[in-house]
Amino acid sequence: MLAIVCPGQGSQTPGFLTPWLEVDGVRDQLVRLSESTGIDLVAHGTTSDAETIKDTAIAQPLIVGAGLVSLPPLLGDAVVTLDGVGLVAGHSVGEITASAAAGVLDAGDAVVFVRERGRAMAAASAATPTGMAAVLGGDPDDVLATLERHGLTPANVNGAGQTVAAGTLEQLEALQADPPAKARVIPLQVAGAFHTHHMAPAVSVLEELAETTQTRSPSVTLLSNADGRPVTDGRETLDRLVRQVSNPVRWDLCMESMLELGVTGLIELPPAGALVGLAKRAMKGVETLALKTPDDLEAARRMISAHAGTTTTQAASPSARVDEE
After folding, report:
1. 34 part of the active site
2. What is the CATH number of the domain that holds 99?
3. Residue 32 and residue 142 in one domain
4. Higher per-residue confidence, 60 vs 309
5. What is the reported pLDDT for 312?
6. Residues 238, 275: one domain?
7. What is the strand order of the sheet 87-90 is part of?
8. Which of 19, 22, 67, 294 has its CA 20 to 30 A from that of 246?
9. Options 91, 195, 198, 307, the catalytic residue
10. Which residue in 34, 36, 70, 92 is the catalytic one?
11. Looking at residue 77, what is its pLDDT?
């Protein structure tokens, strides 16, 4: 089975979309998405500097837009049905990309949703100085106990020995001075404590928007960041996208589900690399490919041919496990 996965914030780099604009139809589609958001995604994907695209209000629409415009070159006519793709999933803001790819949201609605998400999260971040730090290595139980001791939230439990802590700058400084045993703490260049209670004001904004946003049931298996399980209802998917803003991302459980459901190949949409890196460590035996530039399309299409055909039904679900939300 083939999985297509969509990266989250922090994966963008200056100029990463430049080679994609040479592909037929990509520039036009990106212009249309720019018109929907009021944000020049063409400029931000090609000429804007690192500081500009680090801005949450720009980064989030840019990442979702990049994933959406890469799908037609990858899948051709099959993009409508995702023929050959058994599963889609996205990390944090990438879950919006995945939901649009699965047909839950129209592309236009998806980028409007992510535009409002980015703006609201940026505003929430400005209210209190907060941030995030990656904790690499260490015993998982000790890592979680240390974060709790410092009053931090495990905002992203990414698996492969990586947990992202989020909280106030003072709490993060305390973690840096008193880290878990045998672990490294690396501050992240993000604007706030995403996926924590600090983002509660953004949830209220998105709840209001969700009331007028149309949804459909996913056309393929779509995994949720909340618990790694498939979501089969469009409205429930959107509700989870709203709640995700202030709740931890359980990418570790998403990867566990992919293995349990029989994923044998994984392609990460641009800006690609981070999720493939995690998969290489946590999903041994699964072929992976980071779709970074159009030069990777031929290899990606070979992967689709090699791994398509073994799919789960939409109602499939991994074996039971204890919820950890």
Report:
1. no
2. 3.40.366.10
3. no
4. 60
5. 40
6. yes
7. 221-222, 87-90, 2-6, 265-268, 287-290
8. 67
9. 195
10. 92
11. 66
